[in-house]
Structures are given as structure tokens and as C-alpha cells.
Amino acid sequence: MIRAAATLSSVLLLLGISGCSVYSGAVNTFGPDKPVSDLAVNTDGELMLSKEPPPFCPAPVADSFEEVDQAMPAAPIYKQLYFIFDSDELTEQSRRDAEAIYQAVLERDAPEVLVTGHTDTSGSVKLNDALSKRRAEAVREDLIEIGVKPDTIRTFHKGESEPLIDTGDGVKELRNRRVEINVR
Amino acid sequence: MHPARKLCLSLAMILAPAFAMAEPIATIKKLSGDVSIIRGADTLPASLGARVHQHDRISTSAQGRIGLLFDDDSRLAAGPGSSLSLSNYSYDRHTRTGAIDVQVDEGTVSVIAGRVAEHNPDALNVSYPAASAVAIRGNTFSVKVDNSKKEGND
């Protein structure tokens, strides 16, 4: 009898030491698809986030929400695509980025795409207005070509009025020659 | 307060509820099984890509699931056998402020706060009956309401 009690209490003690009773109630600041950690702020190097379940303790609460998680929409995508000077042609790097974004659009249920064209401050306001419109239209046409429904794409153009980098007038700046693309 | 401003404000307060009724606030991005949107006296079948409005009530069948993307990028998912209402929503895309109030009466619901909570964590408010299981995983707030007896509601 005493021996059984001793065994039981040592099992309970072990469970306590393992920390599992603490884990399940703890708040983990790593998100499933948008990892935001308080730790990252103080870390210099690249942060690797494990996608595996925690090795020490199971997370029992998560199981009952598995079904609802399947209905959670994917987070919207916000990306910039950059253009060659005075043209509606994407830079080589951006052309590759565009492929990945277009693919993401096709993989979504009921996708909507918002495309906003911009220019740098080199050239007249009027020319830049037209150029930013052409850039947005070029991305729109690419999207339609790969099979995105035209009525789910909305285009806007801002000319040189909303630079990403504040340069003053008459400055060529790659980072301002862009479309902002928002996939929802 | 300036009298003209006061008048504007009181006018806005009188008119606001009238406009608020029909305001679309989110888009249906995920859907499976039967899901109903209850809007005033109407019950509409949910469809992918359709907009939901403030004050809409959402009801999922035993196999139904729905996922919403709000205009501020907040996201909500409801599992089978759920009933919830989007009791309040406001979002100003210029100031990036607003509020979301969701009332969960039954089932399982997960919410990920978007821009409304960027500068104000209190902007997202999920209410649910007292005896419910709540979990916070990463940026996801989840609640499971077992409400078969309708007890413990408050």
C-alpha cells in the first residue's frame, strides 16, 4: 500500500518535472503561417522555425481545432514587382518573382488580385501617369494569360505620386518603378 | 464642441445604423458543405467569393465549413455545426484602425487578427458562452462552444 503510493507520487513528480502540464497552457508567439516571435527582435542571424510538432510535450488543445483550421483562408500576399527604366517590362528578378505570385493566385479559392502601377520621378508627370497605367495593365495581361479570370483583377495607377523611396524630382530609382500586387 | 460639428456628429449617429446594415465587410474565401448567411429576415446560401455584411449571422451544417477574409486582412474560420454573428465591424483603411466584434454561440471558430489589431490589440473582441474551450496558438485565437443544452449562456 505504502509502496503503491510511493510509486504513484514519483510518477506524478516526473510528470511535473517534464513540464508538460505547463506547456499546454502557455502562449506560443510563433504563428502557423506568419511567424512573429518576440525572440526574433534580439536575434542577429537567420531564424529557423521548426514546422515539426514540439518534441517534448504534445499540444492537446490543437487537435479539437484541426477541422476549423482547414477553413482558414490563406493570408493575403503583398509584393512589389520592379520594371526596367521607361518600360512596362519586368526586371529579370521580378519576372521570376511574378511567376511565383501568379502560381499562388491560381492555387487559391476565389482569388482577387489588386495591381497598382507606379513610376520613379524621372520624366514628366503626364508621361509617368501613362507609364504607371501601362505597367499595371502589363501585369493584368500576364495574369489573364495564365488563366486568372479578368473580372477578379482590379488595376490602379498612381504615376510618380507615391514613391516607395523619396528621391525628389527627376531621379531614376529602380525601387520606385514598380507595381504593388495584392493577392487576396 | 462647435455647434455645427455637434450637429454633424448627432446626424452621423442617427444615420450610422441605417447605413451599417448593408455594409459588406468580408469575402467568403473557403467553403464546403452547407452554410447559411442570415441577413435580417433573409436566409441566403453562402457561395465562394460572395461578400458578407455587418450584422450577418453565419450558420454551418454538420458538414459545413466557411472561411472569411475581412477587408483589414483579419481572417475567420468556422467549423461544422457552428453559429456565430458578425455583430460589429469597422475599418478605416487610411488610419488602419477599427474594431471587430464576433459573437460565437455554437461550434468552433478560429480568428486571426488583421490590421485593426496592429496598433490596438483590443480591437478584436470575440464573445462566447462562459463554459467554452479557448486556445491561443501563435496568432490564432480559437474557441469551441459546446452549447447543446444552452446552459451557462451569458
UniProtKB/TrEMBL annotation, chain A:
Residues 1-26 form the signal peptide. The keyword Nucleotidyltransferase does not apply. Coiled coil: none annotated. Keywords: Cell outer membrane, Membrane, Signal. It is found in: Cell outer membrane. It comes from the Bacteria. PROSITE patterns: OMPA_2 (PS51123), PROKAR_LIPOPROTEIN (PS51257). InterPro entries: Bact_OuterMem_StrucFunc (IPR050330), OMP_bac (IPR006664), OmpA-like (IPR006665), OmpA-like_sf (IPR036737). Residues 70-184 form the OmpA-like domain. This is OmpA-like domain-containing protein.
Automatic annotation (TrEMBL), chain B:
Pfam families: FecR. Keywords: Signal. Residues 1-22 form the signal peptide. Residues 56-147 form the FecR protein domain. The keyword Signal applies. The keyword Signal applies. PANTHER family: LIPL45-RELATED LIPOPROTEIN-RELATED. This is FecR protein domain-containing protein.
